[in-house]
Design goal:
The complex is a heterodimer of chains A (about 400) and B (about 300).
Chain A (H helix, E strand, L loop, with lengths): L1 H13 L1 H23 L2 E3 L5 E3 L1 H12 L3 E2 L2 H15 L2 H4 L3 H11 L3 H11 L21 H13 L2 H4 L4 H13 L5 E2 L3 H25 L1 H8 L3 H6 L6 H33 L23 H30 L2 H18 L6 H4 L9 H4 L5 E4 L2 E4 H25 L5
Antiparallel strand pairs in A: 1-2, 3-4, 5-6
Helix pairs in contact in A: 1-14, 2-11, 2-14, 4-6, 7-8, 8-10, 11-14, 11-15, 11-16, 12-15, 14-15, 15-16, 15-19
Chain B lengths: L2 E10 L2 E11 L2 E6 L6 H8 L7 E6 L2 E2 H4 L1 H4 L2 E4 L11 H11 L4 H14 L15 H13 L5 E5 L7 H14 L4 E6 L2 H7 L2 E6 L2 E6 L1 H6 L4 E8 L3 H7 L1 E8 L2 E8 L8 E3 L3 H9 L11
Parallel strand pairs in B: 3-8, 3-9, 6-7, 7-8
Antiparallel strand pairs in B: 1-2, 1-4, 4-5, 9-10, 11-13, 11-14, 12-13
Helix pairs in contact in B: 4-5, 5-6, 6-7
Classes of the chains: A mainly alpha (about 400), B alpha/beta (about 300).
Chain lengths: ~400, ~300
């Protein structure tokens, strides 16, 4: 079967149009990596902003001065330092450069400051200046405030009917399970990597579909189907070779893109902070998934891989069934863009949370509060989509095989 | 090798493409003759397991071909009417790929491909991409792929369609050479091809086999005679309206007509030996599409 698979791959790679697809993939990789790297900036003592390796390294140095467990003492120190800065001449100045100089002094503890903003700003509200008014007395309740805010939100009028008592208890218990005090260190490399990971994963699926959508329909389009299906292995191993070729293309393109993207971004921005919990900092403070940045990354890339496999094999199934490459190519676009149109409809949020596009953005899905009751157990959307789409993908393979096997040449 | 078609029927909705065909074929060359839409391609596609019959069965040496599945296709070589290929593949690559899906071991495939490339006269272009070959060359690649597994059953659907006269003669001779010791079913609406290479002729109309036999047997079934006559230009119109005319050839001021008729169509008419083309015209009532004919 290896021989047939090699020829199937050759059919894909020899197509002139697919050479353009590879160029687009390379350009996408460069553009997304560029934006991810540009996401981390450093402001020096003169108030000048910079990005790139040197900036990331300087920021890392600043932030790692605060590395360690965020205890009450550290939080108090942050408040003291913050108070000192907000009362400085630079901060009070109306000149933007002076303000930037003041900010440059805050950079080292800006993540901790953001967490204070979130803890004391309410569950749904955000106030950048809230940390400036938190007292030394109040800061002792820092970690408790996170759970208190959640409880307050769950009991609010708007949310009261949204979650069952069991679901509310699940969320509170998840919050309670988060290990405190947080261990903190510079993790901006991971944060930027995850910020743009859904873009690269979605681009991978949208571009790869042009490579794989013809694997099945091209036989019919090229009128090579009669010879293919009248060959001895044309209705069994040759189809399996097509499926294998599809799997190889999807897997190689995805992992090459992801590993190159991760390698480039982490090489520039640094790999520190992999073991920090994702609730450190601004983006994932409210998430009820108690995981580290590294675990978030692994879930994101594995989810992306599963999503790529599922969506692209669904396209191949459409191409095998309808013999239309054009229809097959539209499948990922429909899967990715329809949910964004329906996002505003709150009654659909639970359904939307389980659609395959969520697999392509696990690092975003972990911020949402979609809960599902499986028997007596309450679970978040992320474990469900992993299990559900793994099963669906396994079902998809024999279905694809059988659909193509039964093709008749009319 | 014995292929038996038992009450074979294929319907597409209301339309009956193949209508209760009963036929037994053993080794030899069978020429399937019929006008466009007679059901030839549908019949061949069923024989190649590309279409499932809506009624009846096909047996190969007593076993149902759809149950034999791959085992049956291992005996099969097929050149379809619309021979599709992979444009970016070279001749060699293409044959190696088809050999792979025919389950031929790589060493055997290489040897066989080399032999066939030489036999169909494509050695010089074996590394050329298929999209750069002429129509005749592509057809030769088509016959080479059909022969890769040295098939016991060779099915050729309109193999000479679209070829120029030289290529057609070459191709016809090639098929004759390849037809030894196997069952060859050749479909065409080009009567002369069948006349030259088929041992047995099957005439198909409206999805049914309406006549079968050797060339002489088929000719002998025609109840009317064939007349050759030279008539003035002004009589042609009246004669073509009244009789089936298989050939019209202008010669100076007069016209040479070949007429199928039970009675003598005109005083100057001479009774001649009928050809397969005359029989074709008699049964199907249509002019034959052979470009060697004169109009």
């Amino acid at each position: 079967m290896m021989r047939m698979t090699r020829f199937e791959l050759k059919k894909i790679f020899l197509k002139p149009v697919n050479k353009i697809v590879f160029i687009i993939l390379a350009i996408s990789l460069c553009v997304v990596s560029y934006f991810a790297i540009g996401d981390v900036d450093y402001v020096d003592e003169n108030g000048e902003k910079s990005t790139g390796i040197a900036a990331a390294s300087a920021l890392q140095g600043k932030k790692n001065e605060w590395a360690g467990y965020i205890t009450d003492d550290i939080l108090r120190k942050v408040l003291e330092e913050n108070e000192h800065i907000i009362n400085s001449e630079e901060y009070l100045s109306t000149d933007m450069i002076e303000k930037e100089k003041a900010y440059s002094k805050k950079q080292g503890f800006s993540d901790i400051r953001e967490m204070i903003n979130q803890a004391f700003g309410g569950f749904q509200d955000y106030n950048y200046y809230r940390a400036d008014s938190v007292t030394q007395e109040e800061i002792r309740s820092f970690y408790d405030r996170r759970t208190d805010n959640l409880i307050e939100w769950l009991n609010s009028e708007e949310q009261e009917s949204r979650y069952s008592e069991q679901e509310k208890q699940f969320l509170i218990s998840q919050y309670g399970k988060l290990e405190t005090p947080f261990y903190y260190e510079y993790a901006d490399g991971w944060a930027a990597l995850l910020e743009y990971a859904p873009s690269i994963i979605m681009l991978a699926v949208l571009i790869t579909v042009f490579l794989v959508s013809g694997i099945f329909s091209d036989e019919i389009q090229l009128k090579a189907d009669s010879i293919f299906f009248s060959a001895r292995l044309g209705r069994d191993k040759a189809i399996a070779a097509k499926i294998k070729a599809g799997f190889i293309v999807v897997t190689s393109v995805y992992w090459i893109m992801i590993l190159l993207y991760s390698g480039i971004v982490l090489a520039v921005l640094g790999i520190g902070g992999a073991g920090c919990s994702i609730q450190n900092g601004f983006a994932n403070w409210k998430s009820f998934y108690n995981i580290t940045y590294l675990q978030d990354y692994l879930l994101t890339v594995l989810g992306g891989y599963l999503g790529n496999l599922f969506i692209l094999f669904l396209s191949m199934l459409a191409s095998a069934k309808t013999h239309s490459k054009a229809l097959a190519v539209t499948i990922p676009f429909i899967i990715l863009f329809i949910p964004s149109f329906l996002n505003g409809i709150s009654v659909l949020s639970e359904v939307l949370g389980l659609l395959p596009d969520q697999l392509l953005q696990v690092c975003t899905a972990i911020k949402t509060f979609n809960l599902y009751q499986v028997g007596t157990k309450v679970v978040g959307a992320v474990p469900i989509i992993f299990v559900m789409y793994s099963i669906l993908f396994c079902i998809l393979l024999p279905v694809l095989y059988q659909v193509y096997r039964k093709t008749e040449i009319k | 090798m014995k292929l038996v078609l038992d009450n074979l029927t294929k319907e597409f909705g209301e339309f009956v493409a193949v209508d209760h065909v009963n036929l037994t074929m053993t080794n030899g060359v069978y020429g399937l003759l019929g006008v466009n839409g007679a059901g030839k391609t549908t019949l061949m596609r069923m024989l190649c397991t590309l279409l499932k019959p809506t009624g009846g069965d096909i047996y190969c040496n007593g076993k149902d071909i759809f149950q034999l599945d791959g085992e049956y296709r291992n005996l099969l070589g097929y050149l379809p009417q619309d021979f599709g290929f992979y444009p970016e593949f070279s001749v060699k690559d293409y044959l190696f790929y088809i050999a792979a899906i025919k389950g031929i071991r790589p060493i055997v495939a290489r040897k066989r491909a080399k032999e066939l490339i030489a036999r169909v006269g494509l050695t010089k272009v074996e590394n050329k991409k298929l999209k750069k070959l002429s129509g005749g060359m592509k057809r030769r690649v088509g016959i080479a792929q059909a022969m890769l597994n040295n098939p016991q059953i060779l099915i050729l659907d309109e193999p000479t369609a679209g070829l120029d006269p030289n290529e057609r003669i070459r191709f016809r001779n090639l098929i004759s050479e390849l037809s030894e010791e196997r069952l060859v079913l050749l479909s065409t609406h080009i009567v002369s091809d069948i006349e030259y290479i088929a041992n047995e002729i099957l005439m198909m109309k409206g999805g049914a086999i309406v006549n079968e036999g050797t060339l002489d047997e088929i000719i002998s079934t025609m109840p009317e005679k064939v007349w050759d006559c030279i008539v003035p230009q002004q009589s042609v119109s009246a004669l073509t309206k009244r009789y089936k005319v298989s050939n019209i050839k202008s010669e100076n001021q007069s016209v040479n007509l070949r007429i199928i008729s039970a009675e003598k169509p005109c005083e100057t008419a001479i009774c001649v030996h009928p050809s397969l083309e005359d029989v074709f015209l008699y049964y199907f009532g249509e002019k034959v599409g052979d470009e060697n004919d004169t109009f």
